[in-house]
Amino acid sequence: MARDDEPEPADLAREREREWQEIIENFGDRAVLEPGDEPVVDAPRRAAPDDLDQDDPGATAAARDQVPPDEEFVPPTPPPVPRPPFDRLLAWTGVFGVPALVLFFIVVGVTLPAWTGLLFAAAFIGGFGYLVIQMPDEPRDPWDDGAVL
User: Fold this and answer.
1) Cα(first)–Cα(last) distance of the chain, in Å?
2) Measuring CA to CA, how many Å separate 62 from each of 9, 65, 67, 116?
3) Contact criterion met (CB below 8 Å) for 127 and 92
4) How far from 147 is each of 50, 123, 143, 144, CA to CA, in Å?
5) Distance CA 93, CA 99 (A)
6) What's the pTM?
7) Contact, 91 vs 127, CB < 8 A?
8) How does pLDDT run across 93-110, given as a tens digit for each residue?
9) CA pseudo-torsion sign 80, 84, 86, 91
10) What is the pLDDT of residues 33-68, one digit of tens each?
């Protein structure tokens, strides 16, 4: 076995240089197949959207039926979305709900008393502060990307 630090024989070096030069000269060219070199395709041809009759709803079903039923992928039913605890939900509502509510009142043109503005500001700051306090103190494992198998 030849080592990387040993010099190559002159013939091998010329052959490699010729191959690289051939690759460079043909870079970007499409391969031309000989008449007898047709690619063999075993899979059945799927109907393209242009081939389907748009007025015939059965044509779409016929195209779908070309795939054998045992080869179709059916994803599992996803689990329900978990509900956050009430205190955390209230904090997130203060952080995102209050600015959305203020923006809505501005767009609609409703004038609110000054005490509601203070209440909205307190809800936003309180929700943000609560979420920051509830954050874990230690950083998470750098190799943990959150994926669960």
Assistant:
1) 43
2) 63, 5, 10, 61
3) yes
4) 40, 34, 11, 8
5) 10
6) 0.46
7) yes
8) 999 999 999 999 999 999
9) negative
10) 677 666 666 655 555 555 555 556 556 666 666 766
